[in-house]
C-alpha cells in the first residue's frame, strides 16, 4: 500500500508485476463472497488498486493504448504529491466527448483488470457493504480515477457505473455519511460522471435532489467542506447547463436559496465554493423559460 503511493515509476512497476493485480482482485472477491468486506487486508488491497488506477489512462503502455483507443488523446495533467487519498484521485475538465467504446475482454489479466466491469462492480459492492471509511473512500476514489480521463475507457467505466451496474444508489448513500473525506470523494466521482451528456438524465433523476439536500446554507468553514460544496455546485452546473428540466428539478428541491447564499461571500477572499455557486447561478439564468419561477 505504501509502495503504491511512490509515484509514476512505482505504479508502473507494480502494474507490470505478474499476478499482483490479479491476486488483489482475487482476495477482495473472496472477502465479499465470505461477507467480510470490513477486514484490514481488504482495505489495503482496495487502497493499492486505488493508487494503481491513478492517471491510468495516460500512463498505459503504448501497446495497450493502441488496442484500447480508437484515437489517442493527449491529456495534460499535473502529478501531485503521492498519497493513498486526495491527490490519488483526479477531477478533470467538465466536458467529455462521446467516443466509440473499446471491446471488453471476458477474462482480463493484470493491468486490464483495473478498468474491467468486474472490478467496477467490486468497488460498488464495497461502497454498499463495507462500513470502513477508508475502504469506502478508496473504492470511490478508484472509480473517480477511472472516470477522470477524456477517452473511451473513462467513458466506458462511467456508463458501466451508471447504467450497467446500477451504481448510483450506492454512491448516493455516501453523500449522507458523516465522514467528510468519503462525502467529498463521492461528490468528486459524481462530478466526473456528470460530464457525460448521455448519462445526465439518469444522474439528475437519481441524485440531483440529494446533491441539493447536502448543500450547506452558506459557505462552510473548513477547507474540505468548502471543496465538497464547490464540487456539488459544478456537478449541478453540468446537470443543468443544457437541461431546463434539470434546472427546474433543482428549483423544486429548494436549491436556489442555498446557491444564492453560497455565492454571497462575506470574507475578503473569493472562496472556491462561492465561485462555483456563482458559475451555477449564471448558468441557471440562461434558462429564460424559468425566469418567472426564479423571481418567485
UniProtKB/TrEMBL annotation:
Protein name: PKP2 protein
Family: Belongs to the beta-catenin family.
SMART domains: ARM
Lineage, broadest ranks: Eukaryota, Metazoa, Chordata, Craniata, Vertebrata
PANTHER family named among the record's database cross-references: PLAKOPHILIN-2 (PTHR10372:SF25), PLAKOPHILLIN-RELATED (PTHR10372)
GO CC annotation: adherens junction; cytoplasm; intercalated disc; nucleus; plasma membrane
Biased composition (Basic and acidic residues): 94-107
Organism of derivation: Dryoscopus gambensis
Protein encoded by which gene: Pkp2
GO biological process, one term: protein localization to plasma membrane
Amino acid at each position: 500500500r505504501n509502495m503504491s503511493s511512490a509515484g509514476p515509476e512505482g505504479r508502473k512497476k507494480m502494474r507490470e508485476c505478474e499476478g499482483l493485480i490479479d491476486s488483489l482482485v482475487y482476495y477482495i472477491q473472496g472477502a465479499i463472497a465470505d461477507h467480510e468486506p470490513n477486514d484490514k487486508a481488504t482495505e489495503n488491497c482496495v487502497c493499492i488498486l486505488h493508487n494503481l488506477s491513478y492517471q491510468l489512462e495516460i500512463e498505459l503502455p503504448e501497446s495497450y493504448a493502441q488496442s484500447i483507443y480508437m484515437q489517442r488523446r493527449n491529456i495534460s495533467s499535473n502529478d501531485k504529491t503521492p498519497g493513498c487519498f486526495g491527490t490519488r484521485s483526479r477531477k478533470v475538465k467538465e466536458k467529455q466527448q462521446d467516443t466509440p467504446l473499446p471491446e471488453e475482454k471476458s477474462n482480463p489479466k493484470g493491468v486490464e483488470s483495473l478498468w474491467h466491469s468486474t472490478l467496477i462492480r467490486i468497488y460498488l459492492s464495497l461502497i454498499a457493504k463495507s462500513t470502513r471509511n477508508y475502504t469506502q473512500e478508496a473504492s470511490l476514489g478508484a472509480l473517480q480515477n477511472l472516470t477522470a480521463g477524456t477517452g473511451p475507457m473513462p467513458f466506458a467505466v462511467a456508463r458501466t457505473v451508471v447504467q450497467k451496474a446500477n451504481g448510483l444508489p450506492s454512491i448516493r448513500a455516501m453523500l449522507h455519511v458523516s465522514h467528510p473525506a468519503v462525502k467529498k470523494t463521492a461528490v468528486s466521482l459524481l462530478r466526473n460522471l456528470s460530464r457525460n451528456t448521455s448519462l445526465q438524465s439518469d444522474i439528475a433523476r437519481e441524485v440531483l435532489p440529494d446533491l441539493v439536500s447536502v448543500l450547506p446554507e452558506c459557505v462552510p468553514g473548513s477547507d474540505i467542506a468548502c471543496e465538497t460544496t464547490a464540487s456539488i455546485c459544478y456537478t449541478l452546473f453540468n446537470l443543468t447547463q443544457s437541461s431546463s428540466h434539470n434546472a427546474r428539478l433543482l428549483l423544486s428541491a429548494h436549491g436556489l436559496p442555498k446557491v444564492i447564499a453560497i455565492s454571497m461571500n462575506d470574507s475578503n477572499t473569493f472562496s472556491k465554493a462561492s465561485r462555483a455557486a456563482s458559475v451555477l447561478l449564471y448558468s441557471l439564468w440562461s434558462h429564460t423559460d424559468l425566469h418567472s419561477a426564479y423571481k418567485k
